[in-house]
Write a structure and sequence with these properties.
about 70 residues; mainly beta; four-stranded antiparallel sheet; 1 helix; 4 strands; about 35% strand
Length: about 70
């Protein structure tokens, strides 16, 4: 694990990673992990546990709390 990756994990995630199930009005998103944006512009994705992910992964921006609340 690089120092950059370690620093990314010490702060809350920038994104929630989810997969889509269903279509139209019955669509449901299941959270499968979290992700951080790194200084070089890349994204580090950490899935929950061991799982097989079929289909695309959608990244939703995480709401950041002010430092006083964190």
């Amino acid at each position: 694990m690089t120092a950059q990756t370690q620093n990314d994990q010490n702060r809350g995630p920038d994104f929630y990673a989810k997969t889509k199930e269903g279509h139209g009005k019955t669509v449901n998103f299941e959270q499968v992990g979290v992700a951080w944006e790194r200084e070089d512009g890349s994204i580090y994705f950490k899935p929950y546990g061991k799982q097989v992910i079929e289909g695309p992964i959608y990244l939703f921006k995480a709401e950041k709390k002010p430092a006083a609340e964190a």
